[in-house]
Amino acid sequence: MMMLRAVGMFLIAMGIIWALQGTGALEWPANSFMLGRAEWALYGAVSAGLGALILWGATRRKRG
């Protein structure tokens, strides 16, 4: 369970960073190939969503 929660949190964090870079809201690092690219915003949203589902499933599994 602990590993699933860690994976979920990692995917959420990375997904948010990718989405922000893809939309141009986070311009770090300055020479990143992801900046302002819509596909990275999509990859980030999907990754964060998947991470949220994994995290939700890990917490539900612990209770049940």
Q: How would you characterize this protein structure?
A:
The protein has one domain. With 64 residues, it is mainly α. The relative contact order is 0.26. The protein is elongated, with a radius of gyration of 14 Å. It has helices spanning 2-23, 38-63. Helix 1 (2-23) runs antiparallel to helix 2. Helices cover 75% and strands 0% of the residues. The chain contains two helices and no strands.
> Mean of residue pLDDT?
93
Oligomeric state of shown chains = single chain
Number of helices: 2
SSE order, one letter for each helix or strand: HH
Helix content: over 70%
Main beta sheet: strand number and arrangement?
none
Low-confidence stretches: none
Number of domains: 1
In angstroms, what separates the terminal alpha carbons? 12 Å
Q: What proportion of the residues form beta strands (DSSP E)?
A: under 5%
Give the number of DSSP strands: 0
| Class from secondary-structure proportions | mainly alpha
Q: Characterize the overall form.
A: elongated
Radius of gyration: 14 Å
